[in-house]
Amino acid sequence: MGLTLTEKILKAHIVDGEFVKGTEIGIRIDQTLTQDATGTMAYLEFEAMGIPRVKTERSVAYIDHNTLQNGFENADDHRFIGSVAKKHGIYFSRPGNGICHQVHLERFGVPGKTLIGSDSHTPTGGGLGMIAIGAGGLDVAVAMGGGAYYITYPKVVKIELVGKLKPWVAAKDVILEVLRRLSVKGGVGKVMEYVGEGVKTLSVPERATITNMGAELGATTSIFPSDEITLEFLKAQGREDAYTPLAADADAVYDEELVIDLSALAPMAACPHSPDNVKSVEELGKMKIDQVCIGSCTNSSLADMMKVAHILRGKTVHPNVSLSIAPGSKQVLNMLAENGALADMIAAGARVLESACGPCIGMGQSPNSGGISLRTFNRNFLGRSGTKDAQVYLVSPEVAALSAINGYLSNPTTLGDMPKMEMPEKFLINDNMIELPAPENEADKVEILRGPNIKPFPETFPLENSISCKVSLKVEDNITTDHIMPAGAKILPLRSNIPEISKHCFTVCDESFPSRAKELGKSVIIGGANYGQGSSREHAALAPLYLGVKAVITKSFARIHAANLINAGIMPLTFVNPDDYDKVKEGDDICLENVFDAVEKGEMTMTVGGEKIKLACAFTDRQIDILKAGGLLPYTKQN
User: Fold this and answer.
1) CA 417 to each of CA 166, 169, 408, 420: distance values in angstroms, whole numbers, following the listed order
2) Most exposed: 50, 86, 157, 177, by fewest CB within 10 Å?
3) What is the pLDDT of residues 456-482, one digit of tens each?
4) Where are the strands (E) in 247-357, listed by range?
5) Which residues contact 293 (CB under 8 A, 6 or more apart)?
6) How far is Cα 505 from Cα 520, in angstroms, rounded to an integer?
7) Which pTM value belongs to this model?
8) Tens of pLDDT along 65-82?
């Protein structure tokens, strides 16, 4: 029986555990990446481990999230990350060099390698044939120190692409169709592996758009084969030496299968407030819009930008629409400037932003109150744009550009024949904004530069055998990390200051939660299904840790957040009977007894108002040891 591509790469990297689905495995990590919204904490954690030099093949620190300098905090964090990178053997991508996933695809990604990043959209690297996984900053810090990264050995879903996309239908429409069919919970515990004749019709940037938004499925990662299209991309980047042909065996066996006929797809949009709330553009009709934002790690490649420039050429953005465009990297921006496409965008009235995450992470360009915003991004969670009552739709660059001109949601298939977008054989290579680390023999001379906003990792506490406390908060299904720990221009600068950022924890749901939890001193949170979907931000676990949360009890968890809770020393527990969720309310007194025995057995009893409710705690031996130690950081120090 043959192997899937996922299995081939994982098998080659297993350092702990068995090659058995559903069991925990530890894999060797070849590359890591961080960005500045998660990086400061990740490097504080790496420092706390006392390891002088990273042990990966390549680790890169990117500055792309917190690039709005409204106060000293972001600039101080950038300076700190740059000094840590120089001292500890990490490449440093300076502000303005581009979005981490776009730059990593261009300059560092290698087929067949493993990559984890402290950003949930790290699976972008799957477009190059990598096993690329989003993780919490602490997991990335451990990997940089040479430790294994642990996941549940995933199921592998075969997504067979047949046919070819029609003109003006995009890779964005492919992943929106997958989300429409499978939902934001459909990928949990799975890897999406793309195969079939249709794969050959997609460029690497198109493949990367699809793997990037695989994160919205809750998938562990997504992956495409490494083929002649991959080689063509790497040659254009002057990195053909990194190429390795990779594909699944012809007789590979998959756990699930899905077939998508590319030729049957039409332009689509994810409607508010979830990436799986997908309808066709035709179905939505000529909806008046207020704003269009083009860019993000999902859709900011040179090919995307050239299509946008073609649509805008000789036209003017509608007077009732604000159009902003953020090319994904300095390389893309430079090439647009050289070939004249940037001039077409500017002439049309586009507001050209720096090569950074920008509006996608809530850093500027918030829509008007009640505004309708079309975005080529990957998430449209409530309030993520910075305007709570905004209606955000996720669309392709082609839909976005045409709609910006017309002033209403528009179907680009009405444009007729699409010109062939020939990409240059050689891209502009200029890595002058990537700083190399100091030689190992000079690392001692490098001073770590810390600003006053940078606070140490919060105190953790070993697992208690008996926990008696109140329920400090009860929330519904599909709570995202944006609900738990909001992003945006006001809050992101506090990412290196857990005491301060904790004041904003869950304020999207309940503004009184931080003060209530702090006053209780010890509490638990009750949640619904798919709790913690979205970002990899470990702050969504560290802020509750600081506020005294001992356990989070839900119907089900998103993968990365559950891991981050364990890393922080907080127990993620689930109701054995999901209906028991209705029996617990905010303010209830709860008791968890004989916790040590319970975590070994995998089932715990919670007493609420005299009633006993069964909870599942399916932890591995390693996770139990982490919880007993008080989190991954003290566990790593001990081991």
Assistant:
1) 10, 12, 22, 9
2) 50
3) 888 888 999 999 999 999 999 999 999
4) 256-261, 268-270, 278-280, 291-294, 322-325, 351-352
5) 323, 324, 325, 326, 358, 359, 360, 365, 373, 374, 375, 376, 377, 400
6) 15
7) 0.94
8) 999 888 899 999 999 999
